[in-house]
Amino acid sequence: MSSIKKVLIIKVLVSLACVAIGIVSFFLIANKLGSVDFHEDTIIALDKSRSKVMELAAAAVASSSAITLLPGDVGTPIAQELADMSKYFLIVLCAIYLEKFLLTVTGFIAFKYIIPVACLLFIVFISSNEKIFAKIATKLFLFALVISFTIPISVNIARMIESNYASSIQSTLDSAKENTQTVTESAKEENKSGNALEKIVNNITGNINELLKKFENTLSSFIEAIAVLIVTSCLIPIGVLFFFLWLVKLIFSIDISNFKFIRRE
Protein backbone atom coordinates (compact mmCIF):
# COMPACT_ATOMS: atom_id res chain seq x y z
CA MET A 1 0.00 0.00 0.00
CA SER A 2 1.42 3.38 -0.99
CA SER A 3 2.12 6.09 1.54
CA ILE A 4 -0.54 8.31 -0.04
CA LYS A 5 -3.21 5.68 0.55
CA LYS A 6 -2.06 5.21 4.13
CA VAL A 7 -2.30 8.95 4.78
CA LEU A 8 -5.74 9.02 3.14
CA ILE A 9 -6.96 6.15 5.33
CA ILE A 10 -5.64 7.90 8.44
CA LYS A 11 -7.41 11.11 7.45
CA VAL A 12 -10.70 9.28 6.93
CA LEU A 13 -10.41 7.42 10.25
CA VAL A 14 -9.55 10.58 12.19
CA SER A 15 -12.40 12.44 10.48
CA LEU A 16 -14.83 9.67 11.42
CA ALA A 17 -13.53 9.79 14.98
CA CYS A 18 -14.16 13.56 15.07
CA VAL A 19 -17.68 13.04 13.75
CA ALA A 20 -18.33 10.36 16.40
CA ILE A 21 -16.96 12.60 19.19
CA GLY A 22 -19.10 15.50 17.99
CA ILE A 23 -22.26 13.37 17.85
CA VAL A 24 -21.68 11.81 21.28
CA SER A 25 -20.91 15.23 22.73
CA PHE A 26 -23.99 16.86 21.19
CA PHE A 27 -26.59 14.17 21.88
CA LEU A 28 -25.33 12.40 25.03
CA ILE A 29 -22.72 14.19 27.11
CA ALA A 30 -24.27 17.67 26.80
CA ASN A 31 -27.64 16.52 28.11
CA LYS A 32 -25.94 14.57 30.88
CA LEU A 33 -23.84 17.52 32.08
CA GLY A 34 -26.85 19.81 31.79
CA SER A 35 -28.85 17.59 34.12
CA VAL A 36 -29.35 18.59 37.76
CA ASP A 37 -29.23 14.93 38.81
CA PHE A 38 -25.69 14.54 37.43
CA HIS A 39 -24.45 17.37 39.68
CA GLU A 40 -26.56 16.36 42.67
CA ASP A 41 -23.64 16.09 45.12
CA THR A 42 -22.17 19.43 44.05
CA ILE A 43 -25.55 21.16 44.28
CA ILE A 44 -26.13 19.71 47.75
CA ALA A 45 -22.74 21.08 48.83
CA LEU A 46 -23.60 24.52 47.42
CA ASP A 47 -26.99 24.47 49.16
CA LYS A 48 -25.30 23.66 52.46
CA SER A 49 -22.91 26.57 51.97
CA ARG A 50 -25.83 28.86 51.12
CA SER A 51 -27.74 27.81 54.25
CA LYS A 52 -24.66 28.39 56.40
CA VAL A 53 -24.13 31.87 54.90
CA MET A 54 -27.76 32.84 55.49
CA GLU A 55 -27.58 31.53 59.05
CA LEU A 56 -24.42 33.54 59.72
CA ALA A 57 -25.98 36.67 58.21
CA ALA A 58 -29.08 36.30 60.37
CA ALA A 59 -26.95 35.76 63.48
CA ALA A 60 -24.85 38.86 62.69
CA VAL A 61 -27.96 41.03 62.28
CA ALA A 62 -29.49 39.61 65.48
CA SER A 63 -26.27 40.28 67.40
CA SER A 64 -26.15 43.83 66.09
CA SER A 65 -29.73 44.45 67.19
CA ALA A 66 -29.08 42.90 70.59
CA ILE A 67 -26.08 45.16 71.25
CA THR A 68 -28.22 48.24 70.65
CA LEU A 69 -30.33 47.18 73.65
CA LEU A 70 -27.40 47.86 75.97
CA PRO A 71 -27.63 51.12 77.90
CA GLY A 72 -25.83 54.09 76.41
CA ASP A 73 -23.66 53.93 73.30
CA VAL A 74 -20.99 51.56 74.62
CA GLY A 75 -21.80 48.87 72.06
CA THR A 76 -22.58 51.07 69.06
CA PRO A 77 -19.21 50.56 67.23
CA ILE A 78 -19.49 46.77 67.51
CA ALA A 79 -23.14 46.86 66.45
CA GLN A 80 -22.22 48.94 63.39
CA GLU A 81 -19.44 46.52 62.43
CA LEU A 82 -21.78 43.56 62.68
CA ALA A 83 -24.44 45.35 60.63
CA ASP A 84 -21.89 46.19 57.91
CA MET A 85 -21.07 42.50 57.50
CA SER A 86 -24.32 41.94 55.66
CA LYS A 87 -22.78 43.21 52.40
CA TYR A 88 -20.01 40.60 52.60
CA PHE A 89 -22.52 37.84 53.23
CA LEU A 90 -24.49 39.11 50.23
CA ILE A 91 -21.38 38.90 48.01
CA VAL A 92 -20.73 35.32 49.11
CA LEU A 93 -24.39 34.42 48.62
CA CYS A 94 -24.37 35.84 45.07
CA ALA A 95 -21.20 33.88 44.30
CA ILE A 96 -22.82 30.65 45.48
CA TYR A 97 -25.94 31.25 43.37
CA LEU A 98 -23.77 32.07 40.36
CA GLU A 99 -21.80 28.84 40.79
CA LYS A 100 -25.03 26.88 41.07
CA PHE A 101 -26.38 28.48 37.88
CA LEU A 102 -23.18 28.03 35.87
CA LEU A 103 -22.69 24.44 37.06
CA THR A 104 -25.21 23.01 34.59
CA VAL A 105 -25.13 25.77 31.98
CA THR A 106 -21.39 25.76 31.23
CA GLY A 107 -21.16 22.00 30.79
CA PHE A 108 -24.22 21.97 28.54
CA ILE A 109 -22.96 24.79 26.31
CA ALA A 110 -19.43 23.35 26.15
CA PHE A 111 -20.47 19.88 24.98
CA LYS A 112 -23.55 20.93 23.02
CA TYR A 113 -21.91 23.58 20.87
CA ILE A 114 -18.22 24.27 21.50
CA ILE A 115 -16.84 20.72 21.21
CA PRO A 116 -18.87 19.85 18.06
CA VAL A 117 -17.59 23.06 16.46
CA ALA A 118 -14.05 22.10 17.49
CA CYS A 119 -14.51 18.68 15.86
CA LEU A 120 -15.78 20.32 12.68
CA LEU A 121 -12.77 22.64 12.56
CA PHE A 122 -10.43 19.69 13.06
CA ILE A 123 -12.04 17.94 10.10
CA VAL A 124 -11.44 21.11 8.06
CA PHE A 125 -7.81 20.99 9.18
CA ILE A 126 -7.51 17.38 8.05
CA SER A 127 -8.89 18.29 4.64
CA SER A 128 -6.92 21.50 4.10
CA ASN A 129 -3.84 20.81 6.24
CA GLU A 130 -3.99 24.42 7.44
CA LYS A 131 -2.60 24.49 10.98
CA ILE A 132 -4.72 27.47 11.97
CA PHE A 133 -7.84 25.27 12.03
CA ALA A 134 -6.11 22.68 14.24
CA LYS A 135 -4.97 25.40 16.63
CA ILE A 136 -8.44 26.95 16.89
CA ALA A 137 -10.05 23.53 17.30
CA THR A 138 -7.65 22.57 20.08
CA LYS A 139 -8.19 25.88 21.88
CA LEU A 140 -11.96 25.48 21.69
CA PHE A 141 -11.75 21.91 22.93
CA LEU A 142 -9.56 22.83 25.91
CA PHE A 143 -11.70 25.91 26.66
CA ALA A 144 -14.78 23.68 26.76
CA LEU A 145 -13.10 21.37 29.26
CA VAL A 146 -11.97 24.30 31.41
CA ILE A 147 -15.41 25.90 31.76
CA SER A 148 -17.05 22.50 32.31
CA PHE A 149 -14.90 21.33 35.20
CA THR A 150 -13.83 24.56 36.92
CA ILE A 151 -16.86 24.79 39.22
CA PRO A 152 -17.08 21.08 40.21
CA ILE A 153 -13.36 21.00 41.04
CA SER A 154 -13.48 24.30 42.95
CA VAL A 155 -16.51 23.15 44.96
CA ASN A 156 -14.70 19.95 45.96
CA ILE A 157 -11.66 21.97 47.06
CA ALA A 158 -13.92 24.37 48.97
CA ARG A 159 -15.60 21.45 50.75
CA MET A 160 -12.22 20.24 52.03
CA ILE A 161 -11.36 23.69 53.35
CA GLU A 162 -14.79 24.25 54.89
CA SER A 163 -14.62 20.91 56.67
CA ASN A 164 -11.53 22.15 58.52
CA TYR A 165 -13.35 25.30 59.67
CA ALA A 166 -16.81 23.76 60.22
CA SER A 167 -16.44 23.55 63.98
CA SER A 168 -15.12 27.13 64.17
CA ILE A 169 -18.05 28.49 62.14
CA GLN A 170 -20.55 26.52 64.22
CA SER A 171 -18.92 27.85 67.39
CA THR A 172 -19.34 31.38 66.04
CA LEU A 173 -23.05 30.78 65.46
CA ASP A 174 -23.56 29.26 68.89
CA SER A 175 -21.70 32.10 70.63
CA ALA A 176 -23.65 34.76 68.72
CA LYS A 177 -26.98 33.12 69.51
CA GLU A 178 -26.09 32.73 73.18
CA ASN A 179 -25.02 36.36 73.60
CA THR A 180 -28.05 37.60 71.69
CA GLN A 181 -30.39 35.48 73.76
CA THR A 182 -28.83 36.75 76.99
CA VAL A 183 -29.36 40.40 76.06
CA THR A 184 -32.87 39.98 74.62
CA GLU A 185 -34.09 38.02 77.63
CA SER A 186 -32.68 40.68 79.94
CA ALA A 187 -34.45 43.37 77.93
CA LYS A 188 -37.74 41.50 78.22
CA GLU A 189 -37.36 41.24 81.97
CA GLU A 190 -36.58 44.93 82.14
CA ASN A 191 -39.88 45.70 80.46
CA LYS A 192 -41.62 44.01 83.37
CA SER A 193 -39.60 45.52 86.21
CA GLY A 194 -36.24 46.87 87.14
CA ASN A 195 -33.26 48.58 85.63
CA ALA A 196 -32.06 47.36 82.22
CA LEU A 197 -28.37 47.60 83.03
CA GLU A 198 -28.81 45.82 86.34
CA LYS A 199 -30.81 43.00 84.80
CA ILE A 200 -28.36 42.46 81.97
CA VAL A 201 -25.36 42.47 84.29
CA ASN A 202 -26.96 40.06 86.74
CA ASN A 203 -28.12 37.62 84.07
CA ILE A 204 -24.72 37.14 82.57
CA THR A 205 -23.01 37.01 85.96
CA GLY A 206 -20.46 39.59 85.06
CA ASN A 207 -20.30 43.27 84.17
CA ILE A 208 -20.94 45.33 81.06
CA ASN A 209 -17.30 45.16 80.00
CA GLU A 210 -17.41 41.38 80.07
CA LEU A 211 -20.50 41.41 77.88
CA LEU A 212 -18.85 43.73 75.38
CA LYS A 213 -15.78 41.50 75.37
CA LYS A 214 -17.94 38.55 74.44
CA PHE A 215 -19.45 40.48 71.53
CA GLU A 216 -15.97 41.58 70.43
CA ASN A 217 -14.92 37.93 70.31
CA THR A 218 -18.07 37.16 68.35
CA LEU A 219 -17.19 39.96 65.91
CA SER A 220 -13.71 38.49 65.43
CA SER A 221 -15.23 35.07 64.83
CA PHE A 222 -17.60 36.52 62.22
CA ILE A 223 -14.67 38.16 60.43
CA GLU A 224 -12.87 34.81 60.32
CA ALA A 225 -15.99 33.07 59.03
CA ILE A 226 -16.42 35.68 56.28
CA ALA A 227 -12.77 35.26 55.27
CA VAL A 228 -13.23 31.49 54.94
CA LEU A 229 -16.45 31.90 52.94
CA ILE A 230 -14.91 34.46 50.58
CA VAL A 231 -11.95 32.18 49.96
CA THR A 232 -14.07 29.07 49.36
CA SER A 233 -16.89 30.69 47.37
CA CYS A 234 -15.09 33.46 45.45
CA LEU A 235 -11.32 33.08 45.36
CA ILE A 236 -11.00 29.31 44.86
CA PRO A 237 -13.20 29.21 41.70
CA ILE A 238 -11.20 32.11 40.28
CA GLY A 239 -7.94 30.43 41.25
CA VAL A 240 -8.95 27.13 39.65
CA LEU A 241 -9.99 28.96 36.47
CA PHE A 242 -6.67 30.83 36.26
CA PHE A 243 -4.78 27.60 36.90
CA PHE A 244 -6.51 25.91 34.00
CA LEU A 245 -5.92 28.91 31.76
CA TRP A 246 -2.24 28.88 32.72
CA LEU A 247 -2.14 25.16 31.95
CA VAL A 248 -3.69 25.76 28.52
CA LYS A 249 -1.18 28.51 27.85
CA LEU A 250 1.63 26.15 28.87
CA ILE A 251 0.33 23.51 26.49
CA PHE A 252 0.23 25.95 23.60
CA SER A 253 3.78 27.06 24.30
CA ILE A 254 4.87 23.61 23.10
CA ASP A 255 6.14 23.59 19.54
CA ILE A 256 3.55 21.87 17.33
CA SER A 257 5.06 22.90 14.01
CA ASN A 258 5.19 19.24 12.91
CA PHE A 259 1.50 18.67 13.69
CA LYS A 260 0.19 17.93 10.16
CA PHE A 261 -0.63 14.91 8.10
CA ILE A 262 1.23 15.81 4.91
CA ARG A 263 4.47 17.68 4.97
CA ARG A 264 4.75 20.15 2.20
CA GLU A 265 7.93 20.01 0.23
Structure summary:
The chain has 265 residues and is an all-alpha fold. The chain is 85% helix and 0% strand. The chain folds into 2 domains: 1-35; 39-253.
Explain the overall architecture.
The chain is mostly helical. It has 7 helices and no strands. The protein has 2 domains: 1-35; 39-253. The radius of gyration is 29 Å and the shape is rod-shaped. It starts with a helix and ends in a 13-residue tail after the last helix.
Kindly list the characteristics that best describe this protein:
265 residues; mainly alpha; rod-shaped
Instruction: Note the overall shape.
Output: rod-shaped
Please tell me the total number of domains.
2
The count of helical stretches stands at: 7
Radius of gyration: 29 Å
Question: Level of helix content?
Answer: over 70%
* H/E series: HHHHHHH
> By helix and strand content, what is the structural category?
mainly alpha
Straight-line N-to-C gap: 22 Å
Q: In this structure, how is the largest beta sheet organized? A: none
Q: Which stretches are poorly predicted, pLDDT < 50 over at least 5 residues?
A: 261-265
Strand content: under 5%
Give the integer mean of the pLDDT values: 84
Q: How many beta-strand runs?
A: 0
Question: How are the SSEs placed, and which strands pair?
Answer:
Blueprint: H1 3-33, H2 40-67, H3 76-84, H4 86-128, H5 131-192, H6 196-203, H7 208-252
